[in-house]
Amino acid sequence: MFIDYAKIYLKSGKGGDGHISFRRELYVANGGPNGGDGGRGGDVILRVDNSINTLFSFKNKFKYIAENGENGNKNKCHGRNGKDLIIDVPNGTIVRDTNTNKIIVDMTGNNKIFTILKGGKGGIGNMHFATSRMQAPRYAKPGGSSEEIFVTLELKVLADVSLVGFPNVGKSSFISKVSNARPEIANYPFTTLNPHLGVVKYLNTEFTIADIPGIIEGAAEGVGLGIQFLKHIERSKVLLHIIDVSEYSARNPINDLDIILNEIKKYNKELLNKKQIVILNKIDTITDDRLKKIIDEISKKHLNLNIIPISILKNININLVLNSIVNALKEIKDTNFIFEPEIYLNLKKDVENVEFVITNNTYEITGEKIKKVLGYTNLDTEKGILFLHNFLQKEGIINKLKQKGLTDGSIIKIYGYEFEYRD
Ligand SMILES: Nc1nc2c(ncn2[C@@H]2O[C@H](COP(=O)(O)OP(=O)(O)OP(=O)(O)O)[C@@H](O)[C@H]2O)c(=O)[nH]1
Ligand SMILES: [Mg+2]
What we know:
The chain has 423 residues and is α/β, with parallel strands linked by helices. It is 21% helix and 23% strand. The radius of gyration is 32 Å and the shape is elongated. The site of guanosine-5'-triphosphate has 23 residues, from helix 2.
């Protein structure tokens, strides 16, 4: 089943905590510290896999969680690193932050790899904290915190050429004739419900072509299969219109082209800047006179469109179309239809400023960076408190608070912790 939209939850691994322990040997009174380090938490990594062409698997699974690092242990044992979690996505998957709907990364490109969440750093065991003054440190650094995010995946088909047209005009017949794709063909509308990709090999060149389900009037507002499929033409270099000129279909070929152009324009008018070729299909069913009239009218209205009459059934002019496509693709230099990121996740880089709320003699400090530092700090130990104090000093936060009136005996509040400040 073709699925081109999914929402999932990602979480990286927490770093394992450093361990506190001391050597205990028979007849050795005070063994030195021997608590080992924690392992690092696993990253969450996205990877393009060209053998997948749908987001279907993401409909069945919502949570993607990398492994935590193992805690350190006694006897200097290093905790095992958490395994990275690699998530395979189809080529052309756009990843957005669900919260803001901003693009984080466009997973377009063979074998592209992107680390979306970093695992927490491993904590540090007490064996590293022995100094000449403190020979039996009861302090170890906890592991770094994990990161989490909800993301929306959206697949935009990557094809050099997109076939567009009303239902039942012969789009699937065309792609079956010229490529390796074999979508169902039948004499009723909406036979094709999902985009199909085909590879065309012609005159020493190769290009991809997408059969998009039929577009009808109102598609841009969501009529029929609508907007859901218009987005797939965004990345193509060439739009190949197919118009049904047969009398038995009772269509009006001139109106049909106008309606399709209008729907595309309503959806995103920039799409009309792409190279466009117009195929008039099923000419085996009409007289030369009718065909001539249709060509005259369309070319009067659209002076610079390349119009090619064909019959897929009778194999007429198929090569003319392929030649035009190859020429059009040659002219297009910009092969880069990759969406730029709109936000950058702060992979363990905290940029947010610190904020203060002051009431009476209490100074409350908030901010992402502080929160992260707290995650790394063990405030149950004197060393931890000292570490936090040094951090506040180094960042100039104490100075700022002093300017705002902080004095000996004031209370500092940070995310549930409270201290009395001592000058
Ligand atoms: N006479 C004639 N019939 C054709 C020609 N090309 C396609 N057809 C017929 O047109 C009908 C529709 O063809 P499809 O290829 O399924 O059309 P489609 O545009 O993919 O239709 P949807 O998937 O419903 O949008 C089928 O019965 C085809 O056999 C042609 O050149 N001449
Ligand atoms: Mg079809």
